[in-house]
Amino acid sequence: MKLVDFLQAEHLVADLEAQNKQGVLEELVGVLVASGVISDARHAVDVLLERERLGSTGIGEGIAIPHGKLPGLESVVAVFARSKNGVDFDSMDGAPVNLFFLLVAPENSASMHLKALARISRLLKDRDFRQELLACDSKELLYEKISAEDARH
Fold first, then answer.
1. Which of 11, 67, 113, 153 is catalytic?
2. Global confidence as pTM
3. What region does 61 belong to: left with phi over 0, alpha with psi -120 to 50, or beta?
């Protein structure tokens, strides 16, 4: 499974405006609503917040991978976003989060959901890659970097 299989170029945010966890989730879900992937933003945000109550998806080192399952989806879909200033996301290491991968999956897709999470985690383990993402100055360059890294692994 490749990241570009479920991350479309239009599902990137080069500079998040949100300043808190709920705002980030609303902004990321808004990308999927705007592209017609999901229609019920409120339900999607509620599902993601419920998942966050189980434990933060802020995994440390400036990374968060909020995720959840939604009815009506046909496949796994992701949104990548970068916050230049960082957002307090209750990360495991207490550090602000700069790189977000929102992942939503169909309700009955445990295998695909887990494979997608593993793929994102594997790519973001590379510190140099994370630094490259922070340095990109456009959505287009972010997608190019993500696609190139995805192809290498």
1. 67
2. 0.95
3. left
